[in-house]
From TrEMBL:
Top-level taxon: Bacteria
PROSITE patterns from the UniProt entry: PROKAR_LIPOPROTEIN (PS51257)
Sorted UniProt keywords: Membrane, Transmembrane, Transmembrane helix
Name of the protein this chain belongs to: Cytochrome c oxidase-associated protein CcoH
Transmembrane segments: 7-30
Amino acid sequence: MENKKTFWPYGILISIVLIVIACIVTIYIASKAPVYNDNFYFDTYANVDKNYNEIQKRQKQFDENFKLSLDNESFEDQNKIIYLINDGKNSLKINVENFKNYDLNQLQIQALLTRPHTNEMDQKLKAMIVDSSLVFDFNISEKGVWKLLVKITQNEESVGFFEFFIKTK
């Protein structure tokens, strides 16, 4: 009687070894990629997670007092989500609708111009209050999509967070 050798057990074993190697390579590559935290709330993820309900309550209180809208003739509104601008020096105007006639000069304003995928080119912006608008002057050095993050503090119970997407032409 002849012994017939089959190679399919070796094929299964080789497949399992290749899958394990692929998993190890995937974990290695993923561990080398940088992690960028979303800084929409100008705070760490842990603090936002812990105080999320309080943040939303403060946002609601702010929304009862103010409404912000981006308004500038040099922007082309695209689907009301992304605003198109030229690279280089720009000025951005955000209209503030003041429902209860609060003094806008008393607002504490933080603004950050950032890229969605990296924190390397972040620019902290200073806001000027002109009439009933916030005006930001900034310089965009690279083409692509940018985010303008704005945090406006009226008082301890009223804080607003806003995000505007900007894209260079």
